Amino acid sequence: MSSMISSPHQHDSNSVQSIMATVLLALLPGIAALVWLLGNGVLINLGIAIVSALLSEWVFLRFRGRNPVTAVTDLSAVLTAVLLALALPPLMPAWQVALGTIFAIVVGKQLFGGIGNNPFNPAMLGYALLLISFPASMSQWIQPQSAASNLDFSQAWQLAVDGVLPAAMAWDSMTGATPLSEVREGLLQHSMLSELHPDGSWSNLTSSGWAWVSLAYLAGGAFLILKGIMSWRIPLSLLASVTIVSGLLWLIDSNQFASPLFHLFSGAVMLGAFFIATDPVSASTTPKGQLIFGALIGFFIVIIRTWGGYPDAVAFSVLLLNMAAPTIDYYTQPRVFGGER
Amino acid sequence: MANVSIHDFHGGLILDDHKALSTQHPIAPVYLPKTLVVPLQQHIGQIADPCVKVGDHVLKGQLIAKASEYVSANIHAPSSGTITAIDEQPIAHPSGLNALCISITCDGNDKWTNLPDSILDWESTEPQLIRDRLRQSGIVGLGGAVFPTAVKTNTQNKPVNTLILNASECEPYITCDDMLMRTDPEKIVTGAKILQHIVGAKKILIGIEENKPQAIEALNHAINNTDIEIIVVPNKYPSGGEKQLIHLLTGIEVPSQGLPLDVGILCQNVGTCVAVAEAVLEGKPFIDRIVTLTGDALAKPQNVRALIGTSIHELIEHHSGFAKACQRTLMGGPMMGFSLPDIDRPIAKGSNCVLSLHEVEPTQEPQPCIRCGECVKVCPALLLPQQLYWYAKSHNFDQAQDHHLFDCIECGCCAHVCPSKIPLVQYYRFAKTEIWASEREKQQSDLARRRHEFRDARLARLEAERKARLRKKKEVLENKPKAKGDDPKKAAIEAAMKRVAAKKAAQAAEEKSS
Amino acid sequence: MLSGILTLTALSLIFGLLLGYTAIRFRVEGDPIADQIDALLPQTQCGQCSYAGCRPYAEAIANGEAEINRCPPGGEVTMIALAELLGRDPMPLEDEEAAAKPKAVAIIIEKDCIGCTLCIQACPVDAILGAAKQMHTVIEAECTGCELCIPPCPVECIEMVPIKDTTDTWRWPLPNQNSAEVSHG
Fold it and tell me: Domain check: are C60 and C82 in the same one?
């Protein structure tokens, strides 16, 4: 290969690393809120995920005969690890967290050719693996603002890594249903939403604290859009679609279907809208395509949540649309300058 | 100046223009070097054919190479002197390869040849005759495309509504048009009016960027008493791209793969206008141009008038000299220019700027594409640069063409913003030259196939003819009746046999008798 | 059970008829495959594939007698194009060295030429100009570089000269690939 220097001979100062760093910065409010809600387990998950991600990426790049330094310092593996860790229940066995992360990095990213070549969102691929392989630990969410969430660091570490429960505590007393799974179980047993949430689903979210986490993600996402790092198209179309589809259902029967507000602020919708679905490598790239991409993810989130087999559906919706992204791109090519209108 | 609203184009970048660096001094007068190396290909189209030989003495402005085809341009001696060589010399080209040049050793007299008559009454002259004068004078577009102006202004009776003068000079560092406008605005206007007469345009618009206030003022004075309009456009790169400027000033989009002529517009650079005016009014052939010598490595960056064929090295040494070590020399601007391996190469008709950089960005290794879409945001041609990149990289040239690869104007905006520092423009150039090369190869192989088939047919025909001849002969032989008189050969053989038999009989008779 | 058999038979008859109809109605008149293969070959007519020219090689490929990796002037590009056309797997070229040779044209050293016309008869594209006892010259633009003229020449006055890049034919190279990038080749 030649070492010809082609024009242009001057460039902008942004880089992949600076973009990833800004996204991580925007995640800080969400991380802080989640730690406030669920305690040190979140930090342990984050730590394990980040370390396993960096190590597995380094090792695999050496296997592939590539230079590991530039690839590892571009912070993309860190971002994948953080997004996956935020989606996992805290105090989950550490080895499972590590396994999911390693799968996400190695199978989800490196086997496809490294950054820029993965058709699927690596974090969601890791999440899907864990959900299907370890359904029990993936559904054991500790109760917010409880003794479980107030474990100190060493206790949390012991529990996650060694599986040793703190004195005088049992899993039954520590875990509880998330708002989403509560609604789901209740509806499956044919109770009415008005019975489950006499004050309305929104207040349930705020009282349990989950709404604040979602709001923190929303704030971070808005920051990224205003800074120009991220396009508004996918988040806006995703949230709009969730609102519209769930709104239609809720209008049909507000006792069987949760309200749009509930859907928007529970589970991983905000995290998904701003940080997961917007992963540029696996999302659609054309402007019109991005709108369709986001809208369809929102649609599937509501559908799978309502009628599918899992309480939260962001991961599967994103993976489904990752598969469809090339086709969406193909059919939404923008008009060229001077092309036919 | 008209208060006309402009129609912004998509994308583009706002860049630091670095113009003040080279506008501190007036245009320096011509420097006469000892040798001139004049390339024979300084234009789009076919290379010019030399019409002088080594050893000839030529005068300034004398024709030394003729346009070989319709799309080609004449070349004239930039000064008087002796032709010392017609051979391959290093030229300023991205490949760094040599090309055919005519080398002249100047005699220092700078004596002009007899120039053709001035066409002072151009307003009542047939456009064809004026075009002939442009052709004769070897004028090419000075905006960078170096397309022969005589060909471009041959509208073949297609109507031209608007003549647009491209005064925007959007690329950073380059100021040759700016200084020309400050110095010679009347000639620009005259040249524009001549062009208007040639193509029959109804109106003239001048598109100029807002970062040239002195030039705008000078042009304003010059267009007094004419109906030429000046439209000031924002300082956004690449507003000087032909299609982008047309859209800015008129809101019309030139069709993809089409020409501005298809929508009734003709665009010319202001430098070309001056060359046209001089050719028509003074009979002057195109032998010099204004070059911007700039960059932080120079001691005295400025604009200079340079003879075509002057060595860049000599030009810089004479006018400015180096203040700091030059790490990279670019022919052109920082966005579209190409780097020169050395500066012992000549100025050509399209050399608008030589950028000598002391401080260069450290070369960063490209990272993989993360499909962030920044490139799509800035592309003025509304293309999908990242798609073109993926296709070019995987040699999928059919798909690249389907995605309008040839609409890319190679402005460099996409590569400028790419966070992975991928040299996108080089990928597109690679794809384009590969496609052209494979088209050439296809033509060659089609020709070879036809010739081979013709040869096979020819040999088969010869074989068939030979067989037919043999068959005919055989038929003739077989069909002949077996009469003595009819077959001279047989008759001859029989006669011979008879003679032999007679001789034998005679011999026997003699022996018997003796 | 009888109803099942009857239903399936009826369905298969209907679908069979439908398929047959569409096969005839929507038939695309395409080139015979040998023509399509010949269109991809470089027409050097050199015989390095061991067939007497490009057309015989194309027909051999079409008949399944020859592999697609035998054409050195076409190189990898032609082999990949053939693989795509025929749906076969790409394979390494049979003669990599010959494929890597730069394109060249023949040139006759005129002072040595004896006018024997042996090279003229050998050239598969009639690219040599000349006649008996007259000077022979290779028409550069027509020469495919097949080298078939070199063996017959009794005085060995034909040389192959590699074609140089000019500013017109020069191609931009592919940019340096980063080690962290994957090449798609």
Answer: yes
